[in-house]
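Propose amino acids for all 413 sites.
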C-alpha cells in the first residue's frame, strides 16, 4: 500500500506538474538535432552541387531521403521565379509564401500538420543563380483523415506526447526554442485525455505495490493451509484474487491498463469480462493460480476420501468434462473474435483506400492535399491502396505524380 500511495503522490505532485516541461525539453532536443543535421548538410557543397546537377549516387540519395525531415532545393531565375531542382520528401512542399522571406526559421500550420520551415540561401562557386534551400522539419502530423487508425494525429518525436500536450497560440510558460534561440511555438497541458498515460516511475511503483500485495495474499493462504483445513486457504485465495479483479474492472484508474497495447479492445474484445487480450491473459493467470494452489494443497490421499464413492467420481468427472468443453468454446470464441476484428479492419482499409484514391483524382483539390492522399495510400500498403495509386500514376500535376510514384515504390518494398 505504501508503494501505491507513493505512486499517486509522485504522479499528482511531480509528474503532472513537470510533464509539460519534460515534453518541451524532449521536443526541443528533437528540433535542435534536425536543425544541426540540416546545417551539416548545407556545408557539404560537393553534395549540394551533385544534387543540383542530378549527379548524386543512389546511396547518397537514399541517405538524404531517409532523414526525418524534407530537403528542397530551388533555383531563382532572372524573372524572380523559383524552379525546384531537388526534393527528398513527398509529404509536403514549402509554402509559396516562404520563397521570398528572409533566411531563418518559421513555424507553419500546413495541410498535414505543423512544420518548422528552415530557409537558407546558398551561393555555390561557378553558379550565377542563388540556390534556395529549405528544410521541412515535421513537429506534429495532423491529417485530414485524423480518425483513421493508420493516420493518427501525433508528434514526430514521441507517440505518447499527443496524450499529454498540445500546441497553442497563447503564450505559456513552456516555449519551444529553435537552435538559434528564437521562440517557435508554445506548449500547454491537455486538460482531458481519453487514455491516461503514466511515466515509468509511476508504473514501476504501482506494479511493485501490486506484486507485494499478491505476495502477501499468497503467503497468508499458505499460512492458513498449514494451520487449518485446505478448503479455507483455497477459498481465501480465490476470493481475494476475484475481489482484486473486480476492483480492477470497476476502478481502471488504479493501474491505467488501457495505456498498454495488450489491453486495447480494438485488437480483441469479447464481452464485459474478456474486454481485451490483456484481460483474457490476467483472467487465465488468476484461474491457473487458484487451480495450481488447490491441487498442491489437495494432492495428498487423505483429501480424496470422498472420491471413494462411485457417485462422487461421476460428479467430479462430469464437472471436469464440462469445464474442458467450456474452455474449448472460450478459445474458439477468442480466435473467432480476433479474425472478425481483422476482417473489419481490412474492410475499413479498403474503404479508406478508395476514398483516398478518389481524392487524388479530384483535379479541383489543392495539389499538396492530393499528394498527401498519395502518401497516405503508400503507408497503408494494401492491394486496394496500390490499385488506387496505379490509377493515379498518370496525373498531370508533377507534385501529385511524383508523390504517387514514390508511394508505389514504397508500397512495393
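Proposal:
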Amino acid at each position: 500500500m505504501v508503494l501505491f500511495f507513493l505512486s499517486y503522490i509522485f504522479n499528482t505532485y511531480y509528474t503532472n506538474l513537470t510533464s509539460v516541461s519534460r515534453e518541451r525539453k524532449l521536443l526541443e532536443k528533437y528540433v535542435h538535432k534536425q536543425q544541426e543535421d540540416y546545417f551539416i548538410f548545407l556545408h557539404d557543397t560537393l553534395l549540394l552541387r551533385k544534387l543540383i546537377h542530378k549527379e548524386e549516387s543512389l546511396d547518397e540519395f537514399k541517405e538524404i531521403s531517409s532523414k526525418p525531415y524534407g530537403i528542397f532545393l530551388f533555383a531563382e531565375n532572372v524573372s524572380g521565379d523559383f524552379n525546384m531542382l531537388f526534393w527528398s520528401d513527398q509529404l509536403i512542399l514549402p509554402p509559396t509564401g516562404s520563397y521570398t522571406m528572409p533566411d531563418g526559421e518559421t513555424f507553419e500550420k500546413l495541410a498535414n500538420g505543423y512544420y518548422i520551415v528552415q530557409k537558407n540561401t546558398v551561393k555555390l562557386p561557378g553558379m550565377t543563380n542563388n540556390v534556395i534551400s529549405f528544410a521541412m522539419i515535421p513537429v506534429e502530423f495532423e491529417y485530414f483523415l485524423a480518425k483513421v487508425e493508420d493516420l493518427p494525429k501525433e508528434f514526430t518525436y514521441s507517440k505518447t506526447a499527443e496524450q499529454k500536450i498540445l500546441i497553442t497560440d497563447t503564450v505559456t510558460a513552456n516555449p519551444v526554442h529553435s537552435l538559434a534561440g528564437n521562440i517557435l511555438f508554445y506548449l500547454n497541458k491537455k486538460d482531458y485525455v481519453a487514455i491516461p498515460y503514466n511515466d515509468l516511475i509511476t508504473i514501476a511503483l504501482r506494479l511493485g505495490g501490486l506484486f507485494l500485495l499478491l505476495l502477501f495474499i499468497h503467503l497468508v493462504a499458505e499460512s492458513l493451509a498449514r494451520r487449518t483445513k485446505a478448503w479455507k486457504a483455497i477459498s481465501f485465495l480465490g476470493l481475494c484474487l476475484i475481489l482484486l479483479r473486480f476492483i480492477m474492472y470497476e476502478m481502471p484508474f488504479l493501474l491505467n491498463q488501457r495505456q498498454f497495447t495488450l489491453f486495447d479492445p480494438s485488437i480483441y474484445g469479447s464481452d464485459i469480462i474478456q474486454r481485451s487480450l490483456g484481460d483474457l491473459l490476467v483472467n487465465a493467470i488468476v484461474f491457473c493460480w487458484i487451480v495450481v494452489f488447490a491441487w498442491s494443497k489437495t494432492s495428498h490421499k487423505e483429501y480424496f476420501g470422498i472420491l471413494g464413492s462411485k457417485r462422487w467420481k461421476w460428479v467430479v468427472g462430469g464437472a471436469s468434462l464440462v469445464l474442458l468443453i467450456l474452455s474449448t468454446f472460450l478459445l474458439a470464441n477468442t480466435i473467432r473474435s480476433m479474425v472478425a476484428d481483422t476482417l473489419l479492419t481490412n474492410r475499413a482499409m479498403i474503404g479508406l483506400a478508395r476514398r483516398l484514391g478518389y481524392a487524388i483524382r479530384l483535379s479541383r483539390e489543392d495539389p499538396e492535399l492530393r499528394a498527401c492522399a498519395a502518401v497516405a495510400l503508400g503507408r497503408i500498403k494494401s492491394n486496394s491502396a496500390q490499385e488506387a495509386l496505379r490509377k493515379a500514376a498518370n496525373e498531370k500535376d508533377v507534385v501529385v505524380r511524383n508523390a504517387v510514384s514514390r508511394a508505389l515504390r514504397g508500397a512495393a518494398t
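The chain has a mean pLDDT of 78. The beta strands are 70-76, 82-87, 104-110, 113-122, 131-141, 154-155, 165-168, 175-177, 183-189.
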